[in-house]
Amino acid sequence: MTATAPDSPTGHSTAAGPGTGPAAEPVAGLPADFRWGVATSSYQIEGATGEDGRSPSIWDTFCRVPGAVAGGENGDTACDHYHRMPQDVELIASLGVDTYRFSLAWPRIQPGGSGKGNPRGIAFYDRLVDELLERGITPWITLYHWDLPQELEDAGGWPARDTAHRFADYAEIAHDALGDRVRHWTTLNEPWCSAVLGYDTGEHAPGRRDFGDSMRAVHHLLLGHGLAAQRLRAAGSAPEELGITLNLGTATPAGDSEADRAAARRADGMGTRLYLDPLVHGRYPQDVVEHLAERGVTLPVEDGDLETISTPLDVLGVNYYTGHVFSGTTEDGATTGEDGLPVTRVVPRGRPRTAMGWEIVPECLTELLVRLQKDYGLPTVITENGAAFDDTVAGDGAVHDADRTAYFADHIRAVAAARAAGADVRGYFAWSLMDNFEWAYGYDKRFGLVRVDYDTQRRTVKDSGLWYRDTIRLTRRAAAG
């Protein structure tokens, strides 16, 4: 079924059509109050990068670097959500979800990353929140999804301590404007990506390549989270659910050797425990601190930082896409690399992959959620899960994305299995509402439940979107008895 125009956002189907993959059916074990949502981020969908006082972000700058983004593409227009927001909210409502997770654009709320809030930018989010509430959809705000104001990067970016304090100021401005209606707040989305891809490997904005800076960025991102959380906790209308979203996976040893077990532990330390241990336990893992010292890096911890970082959380957002197997040897059997450090090598499982090259391992989501419950004890919400595939548009305009439908079906069942094993998982948000600007991949990769024709901005609900809608309806009905 297709969307014929922006003001007619969806067709309706009660059963899976040809080639759609598994038929919708209730998912056993998910309660009536389980949250169902879709997710997006500001730079990936909004466009209007030069309108209503918005200042440049690091992604506006990075997209202009030759070779940084596939096809030299950028988010100047993206999905034009800034101008099509009411129709897009109608589209969200048509999918039957109860929650919409979206991010605020820091340079739209607070141009330049300093000073007072921008009334014209805030007004957009005022309208968005009101549109959602009018349709019975809960707004779930992410304060930071990677669009740092360029002026703050010029002043040092996340490796500079002052950025954490600027983030807290921005968080307070946003909460003052929207906290009377929005009760669910996430501080950061995937600080690992901001720190490592942005400041170590250079694959993401701002495109820097300095391992020491990336680890300083880790600490200051977490500090910014804690400072912002304290501001929101102190607000008169404190959030019902305050959290942070991390991109997490599993780290499995390739074999029983000590080298393989050590490699998996290093990977888990750098990808999971480096973030969750200070957030929950108020300390950095000692083995990770020692590993960083071997690489000549000391985290810039000052008195009181860890207490701030471990400000209590109500919920942990989990973004899950895959799990990894690690070997502690090179393909030639060496246990140390050319840099003299122990080897940590990803070993393929030989499983099917998405268009991103990520292996599809839904059982690892169950394993991850059970482990998080055991080690950290926080309620969790799946704030992102989804897959890019090379969609084909049929002659009638429909998108029969059976591979994506199967992906969602397998991973939602994995969430139910985690709940059955004792994990306190309270919601699932599909990534993404619609195809969008996929960072360094430009517009080449499509994750959406809704297809976007970037030439016409026409929205088309894919078969996976119809399946998701029907699965939500049937699961709610079954849970209600």
From TrEMBL:
<feature type="region of interest" description="Disordered">
    <location>
        <begin position="1"/>
        <end position="28"/>
    </location>
</feature>
<dbReference type="GO" id="GO:0008422">
    <property type="term" value="F:beta-glucosidase activity"/>
</dbReference>
<feature type="active site" description="Nucleophile">
    <location>
        <position position="384"/>
    </location>
</feature>
<dbReference type="InterPro" id="IPR017736">
    <property type="entry name" value="Glyco_hydro_1_beta-glucosidase"/>
</dbReference>
<keyword id="KW-0326">Glycosidase</keyword>
<protein>
    <recommendedName>
        <fullName>Beta-glucosidase</fullName>
        <ecNumber>3.2.1.21</ecNumber>
    </recommendedName>
</protein>
<dbReference type="GO" id="GO:0005829">
    <property type="term" value="C:cytosol"/>
</dbReference>
<dbReference type="InterPro" id="IPR001360">
    <property type="entry name" value="Glyco_hydro_1"/>
</dbReference>
<keyword id="KW-0378">Hydrolase</keyword>
<comment type="similarity">
    <text>Belongs to the glycosyl hydrolase 1 family.</text>
</comment>
<feature type="binding site">
    <location>
        <position position="44"/>
    </location>
    <ligand>
        <name>substrate</name>
    </ligand>
</feature>
<feature type="active site" description="Proton donor">
    <location>
        <position position="190"/>
    </location>
</feature>
<dbReference type="Pfam" id="PF00232">
    <property type="entry name" value="Glyco_hydro_1"/>
</dbReference>
<feature type="compositionally biased region" description="Low complexity">
    <location>
        <begin position="9"/>
        <end position="28"/>
    </location>
</feature>
<feature type="binding site">
    <location>
        <position position="189"/>
    </location>
    <ligand>
        <name>substrate</name>
    </ligand>
</feature>
<feature type="binding site">
    <location>
        <position position="321"/>
    </location>
    <ligand>
        <name>substrate</name>
    </ligand>
</feature>
<keyword id="KW-0136">Cellulose degradation</keyword>
<feature type="binding site">
    <location>
        <begin position="438"/>
        <end position="439"/>
    </location>
    <ligand>
        <name>substrate</name>
    </ligand>
</feature>
<dbReference type="InterPro" id="IPR017853">
    <property type="entry name" value="GH"/>
</dbReference>
<dbReference type="GO" id="GO:0030245">
    <property type="term" value="P:cellulose catabolic process"/>
</dbReference>
<feature type="binding site">
    <location>
        <position position="431"/>
    </location>
    <ligand>
        <name>substrate</name>
    </ligand>
</feature>
<dbReference type="InterPro" id="IPR018120">
    <property type="entry name" value="Glyco_hydro_1_AS"/>
</dbReference>
<keyword id="KW-0624">Polysaccharide degradation</keyword>
<dbReference type="InterPro" id="IPR033132">
    <property type="entry name" value="GH_1_N_CS"/>
</dbReference>
<feature type="binding site">
    <location>
        <position position="145"/>
    </location>
    <ligand>
        <name>substrate</name>
    </ligand>
</feature>
<keyword id="KW-0119">Carbohydrate metabolism</keyword>
